[in-house]
Design a protein that fits this description.
By secondary structure, this protein is mostly helical. It contains three helices and two strands, in the order E-E-H-H-H. Helix 2 packs across helix 3. It binds zinc ion (ZN). The site of zinc ion has 8 residues, from helix 1.
Amino acid sequence: MRKYPHFRDCKCKHHEVQGEFLGRLSKDNEWWVNSPKYSNCFWVYFRHNNRSHTLSEIAKLLRLSISAITTIEQNALKKIKKRLLVLGVKK
Ligand SMILES: [Zn+2]
């Protein structure tokens, strides 16, 4: 299995502890995802994996329930609709 490395300049910016580069994220890090192949970093995963994902795959990656993901999606859509109304883009 090919592994994608976690570089020092990764967008997560949270893989250093007291100036020491660890190359991996701890499970309590906000960018940690359940994918060792991608060094458990959301940004490494996002960069190298551009296929569409199922709801259950996303839930597994983020260690959330499917209903939690659905709720996040619904709230995001509400925010987008509200902002489109404010901008007068959509009526
Ligand atoms: Zn990272």
